[in-house]
Each structure stands twice: as structure tokens, then as C-alpha cells.
Amino acid sequence: MSDESPTAKIDELVTRSAGWRGDVLAQARAAILDVDPGIVEEWKYMGAPVWSLGGTLVVGNVFTEKVKLGFLWGASLPDPDGLFNGELGGNQRRSVEFSEGDEVRVEPLKALVRAAIEHNAAKAGKKR
To answer: Is the entire prediction scored with pTM above 0.85?
Structure first.
């Protein structure tokens, strides 16, 4: 697996996580990538899919009981739809955690990704 591209590794993770977890990860991935053609898929942090543009946007993790999308700067992002339901006590990260039966709310997720892109651009002094 070490010679595979990050995209191939994420494909493999989706396949390996068959059932609801793979479905949730695949839906979230599609929504994230649909936000901006500049988003890059990476494989970091000891085996996690990462989506970046001007810095890390979202880190995905698949666990036995949940799929977690961690937003590195989530505490700085607007969340009018109330998607963040994990890591709420910290002053930097926030996550969207899915359990079996939870729906991927595509448009609100895309809005969070857009906000993360804007945050990264502002940190870099750029306008997107």
C-alpha cells in the first residue's frame, strides 16, 4: 500500500470499511471534493484521509462505531446548521461524527468545507 497514491489509499479504506461506514465516508468524500477543484486528497497522520486546500481542511477517520470528520480549525468556523457534534470543548478543532443510521447532510457539510477554505486563505493572506 505504501506505493499507492493517496486517492487509491482512500478508495481502499472506503472498500475495507464496507457497510454504513464506507457509505458515509464515500458520501462525505464526494461532498468535500465537490466544493472546489483545488482540494487535494492526502494520506497522513498514520493512515487517515486528509483533504487540503491552502492547509488541512478535513481529516477523516473510520472507527468501529462512528465515522469522524475532523476540522482542524473548526472552532473558528461558522456552523449555522449545527453539524459539529464532537470535540466541542476545545478552542481549535471540531468534528462531525456519524453513527450508523446518520444522514450525511451534503449542503451543510459543503458549507463547512467552504468556510474552512476561506479560513485557510485568510490565514495565508489570500482571497479565494
So the answer is: yes
% of the chain exceeding 70 in pLDDT: 95
Q: How far apart are CA 24 and CA 70, in angstroms?
A: 14
17-49 residues labelled b (16+ CB within 10 A) or e (exposed)? beeebbebbbbbbebbeebbeebebbbeeeebb
Residue with the three cell numbers 470528520: 69
Cell numbers for 96: 462531525
67-125 pLDDT per residue, tens: 999 999 999 999 999 999 998 888 999 999 999 999 999 999 999 999 999 999 998 87
Q: Find the angle CA(100)-CA(80)-CA(115) to the nearest 5 degrees.
A: 90
Q: Which domains are present in the chain?
A: 6-124 (3.90.1150.200)
CA distances from 87 to 49, 71, 101, 127 (A): 19, 10, 21, 28
> What whole-number distance in Å separates Cα of residue 100 and Cα of residue 8?
25
With cell 482542524, the residue in question is 72
